[in-house]
Amino acid sequence: LIEIGLAQEKRKEYVKQLQLIQEVSQHFQILLEILEKEKEVRELFETIPKVEEKELYDLASQELEEIKIKLLKQEKDVLVSLLTKDSLDSRSAFIEFRPGTGGSEAQLFALDMFNMIKAYAELKNWKFEVIEISYSEVGGIRDATVMLQGEGVFGKLKFESGVHRVQRVPETESQGRVHTSTMTLAVLAEADEVDIDLNEKDLRIDVYRSSGAGGQSVNKTESAVRITHLPSGLVVAIQDERSQHKNKARALQILKAKVFNLEREKLAQERQNARTQQIGSELQIIELD
User: Which one of 126, 146, 209, 272 has the minimum C-beta count within 10 Å?
Assistant: First the structure.
């Protein structure tokens, strides 16, 4: 079974490498076609008398400009396809929305970002699933967690992680003053079983009754689940489903993603520190020489 599992992992890696080669090849082929088209138009352009055939000359000139724009874009696509890719770029992702400074306006801004991500997911034909969402009294978002499933979700959205800021006049502002509000997006790559294995000894699982706005109970059974990862202090609470089993499964799924991404960040920081120390050592050697 272990050998079969390893063979399957190798096969997956080969498929990924083949897809990368095909992607570069496709971009390069399009680039060659555009270059060939440019050559044809340029040769035609050079044979057209500018005065006698002004209309045809202008059309050829316009087509050349359009081809130049296509060339620039395709050259960029080829270069991007040659860049080293994050192995997680093709994965689905969880996204958490949290309002920051700005009170109710920040909550409305978080809702705007939520709707923007949802619209982008529809444009990319990704599955957009709301896992947990809590609305404020003004109609904004207190917090929300969604899952986006599709090819390349994490790669497309990972750089959206962080604090977003908006400066605008709120609808509730009577004197026309500009307010500054912030909200935070956390984009987490979905973790595979191979990536992270949560030890049950490291988890504290609490169950409680789910509640709605104002703390009112919306479920008479203890279906809501809160899981704490003791080593890291990470906490995930889910009460969206009426089934405790489903809430627990989803909470574990999100917690795995959080722990996995935390480990990746730690590893990246350690590598960065090692590079900094190495550069510092090299500078000292140069100074001594």
Answer: 272
